[in-house]
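Each record in this resource describes a single protein on a pair of labelled lines. With that in mind, the following record should read easily:

===
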Amino acid sequence: MSKESFQDLKPTIWVGKRGITNVMIEEIRRQIKDRKVVKVRWLRNTEVDPEAIAASAGAVLAEVRGRTLVLTERRGRSPGRDSRNI
C-alpha cells in the first residue's frame, strides 16, 4: 500500500481517555494480521507515544500525522530501514 493511499484509509482503532491498554494492543495485533495496515486515531486530551504503540504491537510505524498514526505489518526488515514520516 502506498503512502498516498494511507490518507484514504479510515481509522479502525480509536483511543479514548483511558489511553492505550493491553486489550487495544491485542486488537491492533489482530487487525494488522488480518488487514496488514491499521490506522489509529486518538482524542486531543490523550497522551499517545506512536513509537511505543508500534513496538508493543510488533508493527512498523509507517506514518504519524496529528492525532493519527498508521501501522503496517513487520516483514523481516531491519529496524533501521523502516519508512517513517514523523
Observations:
- The longest strand covers residues 59-65.
